[in-house]
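Summary of Year 1 activities. Much of the first year was spent building the evaluation harness for sequence design. The harness presents a backbone, in tokenized form, and records the residue chosen at every position. We chose the following record to illustrate the format because it has been used consistently in internal testing since the harness was completed.
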């Protein structure tokens, strides 16, 4: 514990920039590395999910992600479920470069009501392509649209918010009972974000198949500035991994996936996330650099269009290649923003690990501050 003053103490925490992975005495050929990731009844070629953000995930890119071997998650309260054709809206947003004007426009276009029939239509489009189907709602809209989602036949349902707890208290609105909701839903659920041992353990006890750790990429820095809320990802993941281990004993063997969701701007961050205990990662900003990205180089999350308290301006990225190149290579840049899967494979081979579970045990060091 560190004393901030006479009345306040705090623990020291670490982000990905504070740590590094330590090479082992043994190395392996990259061909010996198996990145397969099992989530509920499905197995994916690698442990990477695409985040449910309108700037990177459309039905088309979700299908592309699935065909490449990963899992794309569609935002079910985004532009694709508010407009029959959101392309003109996305073009209009891409033409706005002033941050304040962009925020106002985001608030305006997202004020349009969600159309339940579009939820079913978009999910059916992904399912018809023969790839796994995943969709995301915030805790505030889950109860309203859950019947539509369940009828659509999702493979995975993601409940994603800036900070989600199993025990929300409100004297105005009836809170979502996560444990009851997940129990009654006949779909595997991934829920988050969270950033502490206790919250992760509580979310695991709801029956979720996976828990998101972090505040969702671009939201993290803005949440710190607007709300003062942040937990650096290396420490948050290590705490959640400990909760996973304790819950495994408590439940008699039920394993819950820990999924990193935030601060994953490069392939090195992805490797560090798994080294800190993550089973998989949910990636957003690297895909904003793809030629197929709906945001056309701009990237934003749901916090950016909050009606009364926006907590994140759009980020602007340079397009570097196709979606497939960013995910699987080949890379044309040397900064870790392309060939994310290949870089993870190389990191594991360099340190001598052949699968993701064993790589979670790799040694890490902390940079001197």
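For this record, the design step produced the sequence shown next.
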């Amino acid at each position: 514990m560190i004393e901030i003053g006479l009345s306040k103490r705090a623990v020291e925490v670490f982000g990905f920039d504070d740590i590094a992975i330590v090479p082992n005495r043994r190395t392996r050929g990259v061909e010996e590395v198996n990145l397969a990731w099992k989530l509920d009844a499905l197995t994916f070629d690698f442990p990477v999910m695409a985040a449910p953000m309108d700037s990177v995930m459309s039905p088309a890119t979700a299908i592309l992600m699935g065909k490449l071997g990963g899992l794309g998650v569609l935002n079910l309260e985004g532009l694709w479920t508010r407009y029959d054709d959101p392309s003109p809206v996305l073009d209009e947003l891409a033409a706005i470069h002033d941050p304040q004007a962009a925020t106002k426009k985001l608030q305006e276009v997202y004020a349009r009501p969600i159309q339940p029939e579009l939820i079913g239509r978009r999910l059916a489009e992904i399912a018809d392509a023969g790839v796994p189907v995943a969709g995301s709602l915030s805790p505030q809209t889950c109860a309203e649209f859950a019947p539509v989602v369940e009828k659509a036949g999702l493979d995975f349902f993601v409940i994603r918010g800036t900070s989600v707890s199993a025990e929300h208290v409100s004297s105005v609105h009836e809170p979502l009972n996560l444990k009851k909701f997940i129990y009654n839903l006949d779909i595997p659920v991934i829920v988050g974000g969270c950033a502490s041992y206790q919250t992760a353990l509580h979310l695991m006890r709801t029956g979720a198949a996976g828990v998101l750790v972090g505040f969702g990429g671009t939201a993290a820095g803005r949440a710190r500035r607007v709300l003062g809320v942040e937990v650096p990802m290396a420490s948050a993941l290590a705490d959640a991994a400990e909760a996973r281990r304790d819950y495994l004993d408590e439940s008699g063997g039920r394993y819950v996936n820990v999924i990193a969701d935030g601060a994953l701007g490069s392939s090195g961050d992805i490797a560090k996330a798994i080294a800190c205990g993550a089973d998989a990662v949910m990636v957003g900003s690297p895909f904003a650099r793809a030629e197929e990205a709906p945001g056309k180089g701009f990237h934003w999350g749901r916090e950016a269009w909050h009606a009364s308290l926006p907590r994140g301006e759009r980020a602007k990225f340079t397009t570097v290649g196709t979606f497939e190149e960013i995910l699987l290579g080949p890379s044309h840049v040397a900064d870790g923003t392309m060939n994310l899967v290949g870089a993870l494979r190389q990191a594991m081979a360099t340190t001598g690990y052949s699968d993701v579970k064993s790589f979670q045990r790799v040694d890490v060091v902390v940079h001197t501050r």
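The radius of gyration is 20 Å. Quantitative recovery figures across the full test set are reported in Table 2.
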